[in-house]
Amino acid sequence: MSIEVLVEKARSHCIQNGSRFTAIREKVFRLLATTESSVGAYELLEQLKATEPGAKPATIYRALDFLTEQGFIHKIESSNAFMLCHHFDHQHPAQLLICEQCGHVAELHSHTIQQQFTQQAAKEGFIISRQTMEAHGLCARCKANH
Question: How many domains does the chain have?
Fold first, then answer.
């Protein structure tokens, strides 16, 4: 899906939810849309400064918080990095396969894993509000070169 299509999809999503897709939020969204791996907040900040020289850490963190709340991005907790979610038009479970060598992140959506996890949590009296699982290893490309 092209970046322009993703931006239009995000803009429509915000209009439907009564949220503001400001210029800064859109720029951060576009930066995330241009990478296939995850990216940290300070790296995003440096990229943003190319068009917004006055951008501060709070600028990027507010934008990332908004994009996360809207479901546009996933936060990779183990590396404190972010990646664009191309499936933000619907709620879904996310399982992330993170390559420890090249940093590529693949997003899976297994409802079976989610169902099993939810059932196990329920046995403990726990209700899951959102779920992202992370698995670290080698992607197919790095495994072939290993």
Answer: 2
